[in-house]
Amino acid sequence: MATADEPEPILRGQDVVREYHTGGQTVRALDGVDFAIRPAEFVAVVGPSGSGKSTLLNLLGLLDVPTSGRVELGGEDVSTFDQGQRTRTRKRDVGFIFQSYYLIPTLTALENVEVPRLLDRTPVETRERATALLERVGLGDRLDHAPDELSGGQKQRVATARALINDPNLLLADEPTGNLDRDTGDSILDLFDDLRTEQDVAVVTVTHDEYVADAADRVVRLIDGEVRG
Questions:
Q1: Predicted structure pTM score
Q2: How far does the chain reach from its first CA to its final CA, in angstroms?
Q3: Is 114 helix (H, G, I), strand (E, B) or coil?
Q4: What does the alpha-carbon distance between residue 111 and residue 104 come to, in Å, rounded to a whole number?
């Protein structure tokens, strides 16, 4: 339970185990992990390759469900959600910033940001929000540029704007500064701070960058699928 001064978690995990079966073997990617993510919190997840970081991020983003244990969103066990419920909840509550960007090469920067809302049938509102987000990340002069006309840092900022288009309360970022110079990385961290201060958005990032970990409120260290330290 949260204390009087501590808000209730957006997302909570209890004794979470995630196993995969491959090549006749069972791989335990997460081994009894507990976690709680609260509004406006900035959490950095660190650990060596293969430690379970990406698996944890997928569970936080409702892209996966645990083999055992419990993941709760708003007090509800997400393993009871069907695929449609998970998709709708993800769209409403979660924004993703992927390390590889996953921008659509045939669309402009502006159109890429609009993609998560294309089925909402609110084209004017969507265009206005996408434009405002790109301006906010310093790309107001690149709206009509295709991804192959953008630098790595600019692509990352387009991906960040796209993650925010649905006004999520949880932002998940996979190595958000990994391909950026320090000044651009600082601008992304400043944006995270603004979102947390202005909108109570929680940010969880998987990172190998100690600079990012130092900026977080809390660091979760994963080793062999277990939280250490």
A1: 0.90
A2: 21
A3: helix
A4: 9
Q: How far apart are the C-alpha atoms of 43 and 6, rounded to whole Å? A: 16
CATH class of 11-227: alpha beta
pLDDT tens by residue, the chain, 229 residues: 555 567 889 999 999 999 998 888 999 999 999 999 999 999 999 999 889 999 999 999 999 999 999 999 888 898 899 999 999 999 999 999 988 889 999 999 999 999 999 889 899 999 999 999 999 888 999 999 999 999 988 998 899 999 999 999 999 999 888 777 888 888 889 989 999 999 999 999 999 889 899 999 999 999 999 998 5
Residue 122 token pair = 């609110």
Structure tokens at 215: 């900026």
Q: For residue 229, what is the DSSP state?
A: -
Domain boundaries of the chain, sorted by first residue? 11-227
